[in-house]
Design brief:
The structure is a homodimer. Chain A is built from 13 helices and 18 strands. The first copy, chain A, is α+β, with helices and mostly antiparallel strands and about 450 residues long. Chain A has four domains: about 70 residues, 2-Layer Sandwich (Uridine Diphospho-n-acetylenolpyruvylglucosamine Reductase, domain 2), CATH 3.30.43.10; about 120 residues, Uridine Diphospho-n-acetylenolpyruvylglucosamine Reductase, domain 3 (2-Layer Sandwich); about 100 residues, Alpha-Beta Plaits, CATH 3.30.70.2190; about 110 residues, Alpha-Beta Plaits. In chain A, strands 11, 12, 13, 14, 15, 16, 17 and 18 form an eight-stranded antiparallel sheet that branches. In chain A, strands 4-5-9-7-8 form a five-stranded antiparallel sheet. In chain A, strand 4 and strand 5 form a beta hairpin. The two termini of chain A are about 25 Å apart.
């Protein structure tokens, strides 16, 4: 029996905060949940759970796509979304200190008022929390040029146990300086660890000066998906560095068009959208040229900020447009950039082979593809076919020198894929780190390195 | 008795490869040394050393400044400088695969032929190896804008033991893709671990397109060191992002002038040198304005590439100019950028209090200061005073919210400072990782987390 003030045991409430947004990831039945208001709440909960050997599953907004925040049987769900204070914005040193429950877009807005910018922009930015972004090392659109979440985390406070002391001990990792090499990079190790080493209670983030130049958009329409992939390779080879380089395939565009009637031409197999934030015309021109040379039916550039945003609308609408059609199983492979067109071709083959409808959104400039497997609601045969296609996509990505997860994390859905990618020796090293840092296997057990 | 083909036991040769360039760090007597030619050599050496419990001290060019490559008594010095093959330059994916002994500048030249750029630029770049750069997470001048070594390491191959298997097992960490979150970030953990987890045998590095714009230099001369520090803070606050922002104090400039007669005006207390690599004049103008507003006696901008380099000459010559005067104990603190002027003032006070001559070079834009403690050769009293000053500088950096090492690493010289900075809990976590990954304490023992 867990005894803590404010403990939630109402089954309906528990059900609502027992899972993230991953389709088909297993969800256990938690013993209880707690909405922590402070570090002291987190410490007390961890202490009590350690005594009773109750697993602790930390969560933020629950927007994850790999089951990393799903409850395990008998666990305490530790909801951090109410710890949402922006503790400090340091304009002199371009950094912010935040609690884990601060929503990404709220932080962006708060720092923008000081002429600063927090770049990481996962698609979930309007809802997802910084704690969750850090736990999964979230990517997004602008990481092509500006890096992923890890590149912005200078330090953090974590409630942990094991070598740090009794479970419930809070430690401070990292620093407030731009550089520093005093000891092993624990901050970097805890970023992307999906809450399996401890509970993040505070994060120190690097900021950038706000961009001073309005972004422009370059759009290219392609008659073939593979040509679009080739255009991406050409941009990379020419050293072009747009702030984003996104790809939408035909299924995405049809779903958007059906819903919102943006006037996307039928017959377009793929669209590339580049965002340019350098001064002058040179970069936009070079991108449009590369698109055309790779076989684009047409390539267009925005003339003002409103048009730039309008041209990006299809990208933002793609995911919700597809979700209207039924459950979406979101893949997240990343391949070397030169292999994007090969991976796209394989995804088309996989879709045909398994008779599964697959729509692909890609952070193409990074080689990070999100094939979205669409199934009619309640159709078990289609679901099995989609799961087989999911496995084939992972195998193809590995064969092309890629990874099974570019930015969504391992959670529950990618455990087998991760082991296949890393091999037994490196998997054993991963497990050894988990045992060392969390000897009771208290924090988010079964995730990442958890046994299948 | 170690038995390996090619073993070096000649005391004179051993003495030459038993230490790095750190002044006053303790140097042990190795049992032998081996110049590895291949991964197989490394694996065999590690296997034999593990059987006989002979510590393995890996080294590259030995340009380190913290004693990280210094021999420990009875160890095998494993010299990797002959493993200097550039295995691959992948122009399609902007990456290179190299052996650890490749010299930084050699890699820069090789990738430049393909229109590519490897940014990390420690001052040792003409001699230091990529393996050493990775082991220490080397910084440099351009990390202000382009990041440190860690930001360029995508993956590596490492000969290790412990959870990976028998000592001598080679594992592959990381990836070739730009993004990836499959498991804990072992690559990041091994970068900066100073060879205490294993021996790096191959590294996969991210590259950038070669810069297309010639760099320009903006120089500001200040009558007061503290004004120069304020100029740095002003540049940061205004969101200026030069590719480098370096500071030289009076002692540096006098040493350079005495040696090379560049025509630096006497009476200048500090000089700031900024490198600008964005198109147009805006950034250089804004930097010059910030220098002037902060109280610069004058601020000048280069008009062509030759002049830009000439203006930077004083920075490049400072260290060798000072070394002519006697042993140089190189400090490496990093403070929040807003505290640079406070740290500079404290260094001046420390120099006066201990009667030690201190010259300060700083990557000022990063808050990373290198106070260089100068002592007449053979003067033991001066040496004790310098060591006391060294400790005071570390304490001051910590008091200002900084770190005891910005880019040189812990090695032997900063072990006590690191413990003071991290505190007992985090130090215990560091030690636990070392015990897990190297249970025999075979790899570079006594360094970083090694007991004092």
């Amino acid at each position: 029996m867990i005894e803590l003030p404010g403990l939630i045991t109402d089954p309906a409430v528990l059900a609502g905060i027992s899972h993230d947004e991953a389709e088909w990831a297993p969800v256990g039945r938690p013993a209880a949940a707690l909405r922590a208001q402070s570090t002291v709440d987190v410490q007390r909960a961890v202490r009590v759970c350690a005594e009773q050997r109750v697993p602790v599953v930390p969560r933020g907004a629950g927007t994850g796509l790999s089951g990393g925040a799903n409850a395990t049987d008998g666990c305490l769900v530790l909801d951090l979304s109410r710890m949402r204070e922006i503790v400090e914005i340091d304009t002199e040193n371009l950094l912010a200190v935040v609690q884990p429950g601060v929503v990404n877009d709220d932080l962006k807005k708060a720092v923008a008022e000081h002429g600063l910018w927090y770049p990481p922009d996962p698609a979930s930015a309007p809802w997802s929390t910084i704690g969750g972004n850090v736990a999964t090392n979230a990517g997004g659109l602008c990481c092509l040029k500006y890096g992923v979440t890890r590149d912005y985390v200078l330090g953090m406070r974590v409630v942990m146990g094991g070598p740090a002391g009794d479970y419930g001990t809070e430690v401070s990792l990292g620093r407030r300086t731009t550089k520093g090499v005093a000891g092993y990079d624990l901050t970097g190790l805890f970023v992307g660890a999906e809450g399996t080493f401890g509970v993040i209670t505070e994060i120190t983030l690097r900021l950038r000066p706000a961009p001073t130049i309005a972004a422009r958009t370059v759009v290219g329409a392609f008659h073939s998906l593979v040509d679009a992939g080739r255009a991406v390779a050409l941009c990379t080879r020419r050293g072009l560095q747009p702030a984003a380089l996104e790809l939408l395939d035909r299924t995405c565009m049809e779903a958007v068009e059906e819903w919102k009637q943006l006037g996307i031409e039928p017959g377009t197999a793929a669209m590339l959208l580049a965002r340019v934030d350098t001064p002058g015309d040179a970069e936009a021109t070079a991108l449009a040229e590369a698109f055309t040379e790779a076989g684009a039916a047409w390539a267009e550039r925005s003339t003002d900020a409103v048009e730039a945003e309008a041209l990006f609308a299809a990208r933002r609408l793609a995911y919700p447009a597809l979700e209207r059609l039924g459950p979406v199983l979101t893949e997240d492979v990343c391949v070397p950039r030169s292999a994007v067109h090969l991976m796209l071709a394989r995804i088309e083959e996989t879709a045909a082979r398994h008779q599964v409808r697959i729509a692909t959104i890609a952070h193409a400039g990074d080689g990070n593809l999100h094939p979205l497997l669409l199934t009619p609601p309640g159709d078990d045969v289609a679901r099995l076919a989609a799961q087989a296609a999911f496995d084939d996509i992972l195998a193809d990505a590995l064969e092309l020198g890629g990874t099974v997860t570019g930015e969504h994390g391992v959670g529950l859905l990618k455990r087998a894929g991760m082991e296949r990618e890393l091999g037994p020796e490196v998997t054993a090293v991963q497990r050894a780190l988990k045992r060392t840092l969390d000897p009771l296997n208290l924090f988010n057990p079964t995730k990442v390195v958890g046994e299948l």
